[in-house]
């Protein structure tokens, strides 16, 4: 992990921990040692402690008496449940975004986010793709014009980032890129049925993956 700057250190530390999970530095169930993280980030333990508390409130970290903080467990059933909630939110986002006044300009932020993902499809750092995926779907929810919907999605986004990080070795990034652009085109054309169908396929791709096996394999080979 790279050192962070003094400004908003708690948030930056939280982002660094999630990025480390996306890179496989931390695996589900791994203990997160405050002192070690602070040393690696080049900051004091206080913002790291607060960052871990923040992540605990978002479901990314769990605290067990006498065992400390650990990264969330990832089970296939848990991922399926998370994706069902996510799909419901994003389908609603599609419908409310298309109900907003205006034309294709409603989706300029989404177009920029799609381009951002395209730019990192071949990047060696999986955390870049995870961040770009999060940005794309966050922009989709923002386009709904529904602040509670966006807030709910954001409350799930870091859990999704951990799952996406695990899936980087088995996900087809070029296919995801094509799906982003196809979804964008359907939205710009005002085709709700097509947009919902494309979104459903894109999200449900995760349900066919064995995240428990991926975690076990990574742990066996040391990350």
TrEMBL record:
Has the keyword Lipoprotein been applied to this entry?
no
Instruction: Please give the InterPro entries that the UniProt record associates with this protein.
Output: AsnC-type_HTH_dom, GntR_C, TF_FadR/GntR_C, Tscrpt_reg_HTH_GntR, WH-like_DNA-bd_sf, WH_DNA-bd_sf
The protein's superkingdom reads Bacteria
Q: Which UniProt keyword terms apply here?
A: DNA-binding, Transcription, Transcription regulation
Q: Which residues form the HTH gntR-type domain?
A: 7-74
The record's annotation in SUPFAM superfamilies points to: GntR ligand-binding domain-like, Winged helix' DNA-binding domain
Instruction: Read off the PANTHER family from this record.
Output: GNTR FAMILY REGULATORY PROTEIN (PTHR43537:SF45), TRANSCRIPTIONAL REGULATOR, GNTR FAMILY (PTHR43537)
Protein name stated in the entry: GntR family transcriptional regulator
Q: In the record, what lineage is assigned to the organism producing the protein?
A: Bacteria, Pseudomonadati, Pseudomonadota, Alphaproteobacteria, Acetobacterales
């Amino acid at each position: 992990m790279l050192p962070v700057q003094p400004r908003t250190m708690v948030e930056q530390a939280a982002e660094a921990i999630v990025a480390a999970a996306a890179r496989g530095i931390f695996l589900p169930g791994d203990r997160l040692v405050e002192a070690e993280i602070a040393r690696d980030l080049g900051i004091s333990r206080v913002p790291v402690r607060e960052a871990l508390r923040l992540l605990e409130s978002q479901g990314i970290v769990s605290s067990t008496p006498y065992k400390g903080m650990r990264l969330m467990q990832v089970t296939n059933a848990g991922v399926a449940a998370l994706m069902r909630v996510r799909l419901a939110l994003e389908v609603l986002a599609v419908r409310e975004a298309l109900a907003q006044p205006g034309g294709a300009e409603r989706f300029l932020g989404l177009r920029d986010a799609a381009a951002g993902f395209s730019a990192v499809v071949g990047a060696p750092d999986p955390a870049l793709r995870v961040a770009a995926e999060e940005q794309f779907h966050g922009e989709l929810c923002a386009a709904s014009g529904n602040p509670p919907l966006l807030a709910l999605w954001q409350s799930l986004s870091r859990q999704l980032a951990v799952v996406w990080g695990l899936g980087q070795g088995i996900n087809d990034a070029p296919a995801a890129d094509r799906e982003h652009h196809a979804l964008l085109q359907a939205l710009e054309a005002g085709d709700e049925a097509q947009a919902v169908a494309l979104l459903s396929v894109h999200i449900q791709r995760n349900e066919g993956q064995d995240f428990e096996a991926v975690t076990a394999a990574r742990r066996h080979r040391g990350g």
